[in-house]
Specification:
Layout (H helix, E strand, L loop, with lengths): L1 E2 L5 H11 L4 E2 L8 E5 L11 E6 L5 H5 L8 E3 L5 H17 L2 H9 L15 E5 L3 H12 L3 E5 L12 E3 L9 E4 L13 H5 L4 E5 L8 H10 L2 E6 L19 E3 L9 H16 L15
Parallel strand pairs: 1-2, 1-3, 3-4, 4-5, 6-7, 6-9, 7-8, 9-10, 10-11, 11-12
Length: about 300
């Protein structure tokens, strides 16, 4: 078993106990079949010997975009408690908006005393694009606050746990918030463009999925036009954003540093162990990635 640098020594020891064998640092190509735990897959390890790659991240678009995936190699990912963390992030910004936190912060900076009425979140609607583990966690936490949640999927299906209803990708749904938890694939690159932003009717847009699913120029136009009321972006097409990047000048927008759902070492160990348990039982792990579809 190969383990990439970056994991804490305690996590590596836990991986060794789960696998029942010592972990070796990457840097050499093993003689026989191997399992690799890491964030990226070096070119020299993209050979026939790779049996299983467990990604320490939830997103696998960079892995799959770096070159052809080795034939027959299993790819699994780490989700851990990321869904909970991202759900809390989304809820925090939703409630901050309802309580006029940005306006009160601006008033404080001006030493201005002016009452601003609050807004109830309960009874309003949030549309969530992406109904997997993370999207479902977001919907579940928003729903616990009385917010109606509508999931968006390309193919008709029953509402997954956490969602009140489902809608098609181009089906209009009046919403107070639009949340993206989409992975980046060939089908989702530039998914949020001029047409989708024009249909949002002044909703706040929150992106906790992948930055390249958003056309930033189209978002800027929608913010100026008012069809998007505000934006909260935890991810960008190009990261990190340097001080002079135009994204910092988007109106009514807050950008955070891809930190809504930072993966913990414990998450890696827990999900690797769960995948190994399923493999030993002869099952395909629930966290397996369809490398053809990209998620």
């Amino acid at each position: 078993m190969l383990v990439a640098p970056g994991l804490a020594a305690s996590a590596v020891r836990s991986l060794e106990r789960a696998a029942g064998r010592p972990a070796e640092p990457d840097g050499t190509v093993p003689d026989g079949p191997y399992v690799y735990v890491g964030a990226t897959l070096p070119d020299e390890l993209r050979g026939d010997g790779l049996l299983w790659f467990h990604s320490v991240n939830a997103g696998t678009d960079a892995l799959l975009g770096a070159g052809p995936w080795p034939a027959g190699a299993l790819l699994t990912r780490t989700v851990g408690r990321m869904g909970e963390r991202i759900a809390q992030y989304v809820l925090a910004w939703v409630l901050a908006e309802c309580q006029s936190v940005p306006e009160f912060a601006a008033q404080h900076a001006r030493a201005e005393w002016r009452r601003i009425p609050s807004e109830l979140a309960a009874g309003q609607t949030a549309v969530v694009h992406g109904t997997g583990r993370i999207g479902s966690a977001v919907a579940g936490l928003l729903g616990a606050c009385g917010i109606r949640t509508v999931g968006v999927a390309r193919t008709p299906r029953e509402a997954p746990p956490g969602f009140d209803a489902m809608a098609g990708t181009d089906e209009p749904v009046a919403a107070r918030w639009v949340v993206s938890a989409l992975p980046l694939t060939g089908a989702t690159a530039g998914y949020f463009g001029a047409d989708r932003f024009a249909a949002m009717g002044g909703a706040t847009f929150v992106n906790v999925g992948r930055g390249a699913t958003v056309d930033l120029a189209a978002l800027e136009s929608a913010l100026h036009a008012g069809t998007v009321g505000r934006a909260v972006l935890d991810v960008l097409p190009d990261e990190p954003a340097v001080p002079g990047d135009p994204c910092w000048r988007l109106p009514r927008t807050v950008i955070t540093s891809h930190s809504a759902g930072i993966t913990a070492d414990d998450d890696v160990v827990t999900d690797f162990t769960a995948c190994l348990r399923e493999l030993r039982a002869g099952r395909v792990p629930a966290l397996a990635v369809d490398t053809a579809r990209g998620y």
